[in-house]
Specification:
The protein is an alpha/beta fold. The protein has 2 domains: 164 residues, Rossmann fold; 166 residues, 2-Layer Sandwich (Dihydrodipicolinate Reductase, domain 2), CATH 3.30.360.10. It is 32% helix and 20% strand. It has 12 helices and 13 strands. The chain has a 7-stranded mixed beta sheet. Helix 5 links the parallel strand 3 and strand 4. The longest helix has 15 residues. The chain is globular, with a radius of gyration of 20 Å.
Length: 355
């Protein structure tokens, strides 16, 4: 594709749709500061006419939010980051794709490969014809597919942390069953507060929510099964169902997943350490820690920080991963994906933003 940057010397032209949301605003800030990208438009249906810098002064993005106009955006942009909720995103993604725009979709609309599974968890799909073309956008696991892709489904924040924590074990066929205990800040639910995320309910409190029915469950199961199949383990769909329990904690942003694995055979600490070192050697955004991480260690970065422990007494493997849910769990991972799609260094433009 002939990029705008090739026509006039600027960086690739990028629009951010849904830039008035938490993740969309960070994505806009990252694109604006990116040396290889040119932020040409930001949109919002509810805050059109306002400068993003007035809505979020900390991000210092002076552009005015526009009403989304697909024809205008497609004509002006090489690529788009679409920060819409599920179902609302699919039609827009399809329209931009049809006009030759590269798209990273923040929603769940193209993450699940099986349409019937999507419909079970989310309802009717607005653009099912695009599912087969979309690539799941977890770069550490799907890099080859993301390079040159035209539509990338940005993973959910919980699946990002859980899959990075568990991928080496899944590939090695070492997961018999797993319990994922996840904790996230309240920004993960978006700008509009719910009864659970209202300050009065969330402050000085910790609550499990959507127990036994969180929509990220099939996404994690799908990708673990695919990893196990490629690693010589169970075929897709045959991996044991996971137990996934998210918790809301009184933080604005940050996420920690604690995964408790019963392995298919005994695993000693030395083997576990080697497995993870080999899996993530050279990965620019995965750090292996020598102790369990906290969310403050990765705040406002694209990093995932992982610690693993073989609990030989209990016969379990404990895997911990910390990310920033708005960054590696959403906005900065989308920029990492876009870098790969455009043939840029995936690290480009992903330094820490000053507050």
């Amino acid at each position: 594709m002939l990029l705008v940057s090739e026509r006039d010397g600027r960086g690739a032209a990028v629009a951010v749709l849904g830039a008035s949301g938490y993740a969309g605003a960070i994505a806009a800030a990252l694109v604006q500061r990116h040396p290889g990208l040119d932020l040409v438009a930001i949109t919002s249906r509810t805050d059109a006419g306002r400068r993003l810098a007035d809505l979020y002064p900390q991000h210092r993005v002076p552009l005015v939010l526009e009403q989304p106009d697909i024809e205008h955006l497609a004509a002006a942009s090489d690529a788009a980051l679409v920060a819409y909720p599920h179902a609302a995103a699919a039609t827009t993604v399809a329209e931009l794709h049809a006009r030759g725009v590269l798209v990273v979709d923040f929603s769940a609309d193209f993450r699940l490969r099986d349409l019937s599974v999507y419909e079970q968890w989310y309802g009717s799909h607005p653009a099912p014809e695009l599912i087969e073309q979309a690539v799941y956008g977890l770069p550490e696991l799907k890099r080859d597919g993301i390079v040159g892709a035209r539509v990338v489904a940005n993973p959910g924040c919980y699946p990002t942390a859980a899959l990075l924590a568990l991928a080496p074990l899944a590939r090695a066929g070492l997961i018999e069953d797993v319990v994922i205990d996840a904790k996230s800040g309240i920004s993960g639910s978006g700008r509009e507060p719910t009864e659970e995320t209202h300050f009065v309910s969330a402050d000085e409190n910790v609550n499990p929510y959507k127990v036994g029915g969180h929509r990220h469950t099939p996404e994690i199961e799908q990708e673990l099964a695919l990893l196990a199949a490629r690693g010589g383990g169970d075929a897709p769909g045959q991996l044991a169902p996971i137990t996934f329990v998210p918790h809301l904690v009184p933080l604005d942003q940050g996420e920690l997943v604690s995964c408790y694995v019963r392995p298919t055979r005994a695993v000693e600490q030395r083997e576990l350490d080697t497995l993870y070192r080999d899996a993530y050697a050279g990965e620019p955004f995965v750090e292996l820690a020598d102790r369990a991480p906290g969310v403050r260690e990765v705040r406002e970065t694209n990093l995932c920080r992982i610690f693993v422990l073989a609990d030989e007494r209990a016969g379990r493997l404990c895997c911990f991963a910390a990310i920033d849910n708005l960054w590696k769990g959403a906005a900065s991972q989308a920029v990492q994906n876009l870098n790969l799609m455009l043939g840029l260094d995936e690290r480009e433009g992903l330094g820490v933003l000053a507050a």
